[in-house]
């Protein structure tokens, strides 16, 4: 039986933030929409959404990018989950992760927020931390740069060369999570790159 999944890319709104590390989750959502030839429309929940399918006749995907700032992502996510009748275990949050090296992806479900304010706000708004996460590694800043400045900077020139592959891999991870489950997606995407 086909299920509905809410796939949300966290980030900040507006052109100033589009290409920043903090918005890598939204870049993954853009890739998932692009693979399906779909464009976003405005939703009353305060987000831009695409209603589509994993594959024709299979699970329904609601791809979403909140219009709110990262730290208050919970309101739009919770509103969308209620609107589409999606339980937390099928709300997939795609977000940047400082504690994972750049060009790596980790998946998990539940647990703490690891200091990520967007994830913290989503857990609070959903009333549960038990939702799957696709964590896209952006690495820690070099030297003494403040992490809060680092996440709001664009990717550097060297990283921009690899970024399309990272975004593609993260989109693959979302699709595999939906189709085959968390463990299968972890087994594939946690393996060292060869």
UniProtKB/TrEMBL annotation:
<dbReference type="InterPro" id="IPR036416">
    <property type="entry name" value="Pept_tRNA_hydro_sf"/>
</dbReference>
<dbReference type="Pfam" id="PF01195">
    <property type="entry name" value="Pept_tRNA_hydro"/>
</dbReference>
<feature type="binding site">
    <location>
        <position position="17"/>
    </location>
    <ligand>
        <name>tRNA</name>
    </ligand>
</feature>
<dbReference type="GO" id="GO:0004045">
    <property type="term" value="F:peptidyl-tRNA hydrolase activity"/>
</dbReference>
<dbReference type="InterPro" id="IPR001328">
    <property type="entry name" value="Pept_tRNA_hydro"/>
</dbReference>
<keyword id="KW-0694">RNA-binding</keyword>
<comment type="function">
    <text>Catalyzes the release of premature peptidyl moieties from peptidyl-tRNA molecules trapped in stalled 50S ribosomal subunits, and thus maintains levels of free tRNAs and 50S ribosomes.</text>
</comment>
<comment type="function">
    <text>Hydrolyzes ribosome-free peptidyl-tRNAs (with 1 or more amino acids incorporated), which drop off the ribosome during protein synthesis, or as a result of ribosome stalling.</text>
</comment>
<keyword id="KW-0820">tRNA-binding</keyword>
<feature type="binding site">
    <location>
        <position position="69"/>
    </location>
    <ligand>
        <name>tRNA</name>
    </ligand>
</feature>
<feature type="binding site">
    <location>
        <position position="71"/>
    </location>
    <ligand>
        <name>tRNA</name>
    </ligand>
</feature>
<keyword id="KW-0378">Hydrolase</keyword>
<feature type="site" description="Stabilizes the basic form of H active site to accept a proton">
    <location>
        <position position="96"/>
    </location>
</feature>
<comment type="similarity">
    <text>Belongs to the PTH family.</text>
</comment>
<keyword id="KW-0963">Cytoplasm</keyword>
<feature type="site" description="Discriminates between blocked and unblocked aminoacyl-tRNA">
    <location>
        <position position="12"/>
    </location>
</feature>
<protein>
    <recommendedName>
        <fullName>Peptidyl-tRNA hydrolase</fullName>
        <ecNumber>3.1.1.29</ecNumber>
    </recommendedName>
</protein>
<comment type="subunit">
    <text>Monomer.</text>
</comment>
<feature type="binding site">
    <location>
        <position position="117"/>
    </location>
    <ligand>
        <name>tRNA</name>
    </ligand>
</feature>
<feature type="active site" description="Proton acceptor">
    <location>
        <position position="22"/>
    </location>
</feature>
<dbReference type="InterPro" id="IPR018171">
    <property type="entry name" value="Pept_tRNA_hydro_CS"/>
</dbReference>
């Amino acid at each position: 039986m086909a299920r509905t999944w809410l796939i949300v890319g966290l980030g900040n709104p507006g052109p100033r933030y589009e290409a920043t590390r903090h918005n890598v989750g939204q870049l993954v959502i853009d890739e998932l929409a692009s693979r399906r030839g779909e464009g976003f429309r405005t939703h009353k929940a305060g987000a831009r959404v695409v209603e589509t399918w994993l594959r024709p006749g299979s699970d329904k995907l609601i791809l979403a990018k909140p219009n709110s700032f990262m730290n208050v992502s919970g309101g739009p996510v919770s509103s969308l989950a209620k609107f589409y009748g999606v339980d937390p275990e099928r709300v997939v949050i795609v977000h940047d992760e400082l504690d994972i090296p750049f060009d790596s992806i980790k998946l998990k479900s539940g647990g703490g927020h690891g200091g990520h304010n967007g994830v913290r706000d989503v857990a609070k708004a959903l009333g549960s931390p038990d939702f799957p996460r696709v964590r896209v590694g952006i690495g820690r800043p070099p030297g003494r740069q403040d992490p809060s400045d680092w996440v709001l900077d664009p990717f550097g020139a060297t990283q921009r060369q690899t970024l399309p592959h990272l975004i593609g891999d993260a989109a693959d991870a979302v699709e595999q999570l939906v189709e085959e489950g968390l463990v299968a997606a972890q087994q594939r995407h946690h393996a060292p790159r060869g």
